[in-house]
Amino acid sequence: MRMDDSAGQASGDTIRLGLLAPLSGLVGMYGEEIIRAASIACDEVNAEGGVLGLPLELVSADDGSFPASAVPAALGLVDFSGCAALIGNLLTHSRIAVADKVAGQRRVPYLNFAFYAGGIASRYFFHFSALPNQQIDKMIAWAASRLGQKMFFAGNNYEWPRGSIDAAKRALIRVGGEPVGEVYLPFDADARAIDAMLDEVRQSGADVFVPYFAGANQIAVLKRFAERGLKRQMAAVMGHFDDLMASLLPEDAREGLYGCNTYFMSVDTARNRRLLAALARRPGVDGLWPQGNGLLTNFGEGAYLCVHAFAQAARAAGSLETDKLLAALEYVIVNGPQGTVVMDAASHHAAVSCFLAQCGRDGGFRILERFGCHAPMMPERYVQAAAPVPSSQASPGAGAIPPKASIPTRCSRYSPWWTWPSCPWTKKA
Question: What InterPro entries does the annotation carry (predicted)?
Fold first, then answer.
């Protein structure tokens, strides 16, 4: 656990905001850029006078990428560091665990910066990145119309890839396309397993390969995809491909790959230019990618949004009291690097923008399509989940938890998706 360079005050003289960033594990490559972006936002908040008359202090902890380390890290930020709210986590299973075991039980606002397949419904959870209707639906329709309608899907064997691929197949079928294959591999699958999967991809007749592997596993698959010559046979289009990932791939492997997300460094907005200028001034940054090592992805941009959203909500609430803060978070509007981001009070998921971009040989991205800002919509896979009660409508009193009798017995809005009776992974007695 560390106090970041935007901090520096004693805990009694600051308002602490906890950041769960992956500094180790499967997606550990993203930890530093997430912390840098959040620290820049914290500096901006403090330059504007802080929050409630006090400086905002960012306290970060390594979530280790997985739930077994993410939950203790989150508890430490709340119970020992006294953080007023949490920002995190990158991987879906860690996010679900922290939402359920920490935010819900400790009654702490939990702001999230990473795109996911959907399914979390909690009055404490606020999502500031893309759901499938804002990202996957747009990406699949674009790829089907320009690159071909036969697509092969593959990913790690856990909920984010499965939920994302479910949404992608539905989107493809809606536009008249054809899923021609679907494979799931365990985390850190060996080269033999990756090659066996790519043999299926080659033989499938696919026009487009759509991989949903996490972090280092995605890099391993993309390297082998290029080495096997599959780039000459089909396109690769991804929701998880960014400037940082491109920086870790050889030139031949990254050139021509497509990514779709809420942010790329090449997004041309005044707010993004300001953010990148601040990034270039950070200690240890020798220039902006692809000329230097200064990198930013949708995860970092999302963390930047979360810091500003928390500050805005606390100022509007005039208090850090939980119910007032939750009510204010439902109505935040953040002018971010991607554009304007608007929280939806009913779902606790934001309206965000999305971009389709292609990676060049130098590792930079050229924006090919701007899909605009779209309201969130929970995917069909999770539609049986109850929406969180807006804090402004809850009773008794704004933000109060409804009595137990008013919570649906079929799928509690305060329970993670794996406990819902309708969920295919739920063990039934």
Answer: Leu-bd, Leu_Ile_Val-bd, Peripla_BP_I
